[in-house]
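User: Second chain of the day. Same drill as before.
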Amino acid sequence: MTKPSPTARERIVAGAADMISRRGLNATSIRETAKHARAPLGSTYHYFPEGKQQLATEAVRHTGAWAARSLRRELEAGPVAGLRAFLTLWRKIVVESDFRAGCPVLAVSIEEPPVDETPTALTAAAEVFDEWESLLAGSLREHGADPEQAAEVATLVVAAVEGTVAMCRAKRSTQPLDRTAAQLHALVLATIKA
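Assistant: Same format as last time:
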């Protein structure tokens, strides 16, 4: 069975996620996103009448759902398999982009929001991080980890992987990811055997 071609809206959202992962939110414009997605500029405004913030929010949710699907599938085999898949997913992005792309969820999270405002994209990023942590913590609990420790380790995994992706980009090397992977693997094993 062949996978249907993505719609123009889906291409725009995926294009925005890619642009944000490379340039950050502030340096990503709707015009450039439409061009990058090979979509007419008018259709971008049609699908996202609230503008850049709406598009960024959808891009963050798109990335979150995409990573969560992979994580959910791999966690069926246990937390070690889930961790491995999560690390592999980000390694692939960093390497295939020649260290030019990272995580759009992190990119949205680190940009300064307007004063007295919490942008919807930032709220979406928090929700994505919560979902990834929840999936990991749930798997750790299912495999014998204490609930509080499972939550703490899940937070550490997400934070470590996100930070390591940024380090890989800066150093133009996967060495930080390799080192982090080894330590997180040992921690997850210790957590489920405890």
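The mean pLDDT is 93.

User: Great, on to the next one.
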